[in-house]
Amino acid sequence: MKKKKSGKSVKKPVRKAKKKPACKKPAGAAKKKKALKTKKQPVKKASSVSIDASLEEVGVVTHYFPKVDAAVVKLTKAGLSVGDKIVIKGHTSDFKENVESIQLDHAPIQNAEKDMEIGLKVKAKVREHDVVYKRLK
Questions:
Q1: CA dist., res. 48 & res. 15, Å (int)
Q2: Alpha-carbon gap, residue 135 to 55, rounded angstroms
Q3: pLDDT digit string (tens) for the chain, length 137 residues
Q4: I want to staple 133 with a disulfide (CB 3.0 to 4.6 A). Which of 10, 18, 47, 87 is the partner?
């Protein structure tokens, strides 16, 4: 910048920024992260259904339709009938219910056999890979 003093222009000296010293840490050194202090909460165990000799594996859930509360079940080990008592167990789901409705190609059926892929009305959300067990009488 120029300032005028009695008709003469004077140049103002420019200040140079000071250089920061180079980092003295070794090249491979990692920064230490501060650990967050959190309270460990005890794990709550829900009243889960235990898998015992009175349960027989029937199949696996392959899809879930939330609007109609229906699951697609691939029967891999045994058949299933309306009125059977089943247990659906997975990573986050664990409940029992009675079979009220079974469908095959949108048509209601009473009995489903091994190696069928059926639609099953369920009362709670299920996920893929949840296992379906039938309670033996």
A1: 74
A2: 5
A3: 555 556 666 777 777 777 766 666 665 556 665 666 666 666 544 455 666 778 999 999 999 999 999 999 999 999 999 999 999 999 999 999 999 999 999 999 999 999 999 999 999 999 999 999 999 87
A4: 87
Q: Which two tokens stand for residue 42?
A: 């005890």
Q: Measured on CA atoms in the order 113, 106, 126, 82, is the torsion positive or negative? A: negative
118 contacts 80 by C-beta, under 8 angstroms:
yes
**The domain defined by 55-135 carries CATH number 3.40.190.10:** no
Residues 6+ apart with CB under 8 A from 85: 96, 97, 98, 99, 134, 135
Within 8 A by CB and 6+ apart from 59, the residues are 73, 74, 75, 76, 77, 78, 80, 131, 132
Strand partners, 54: none
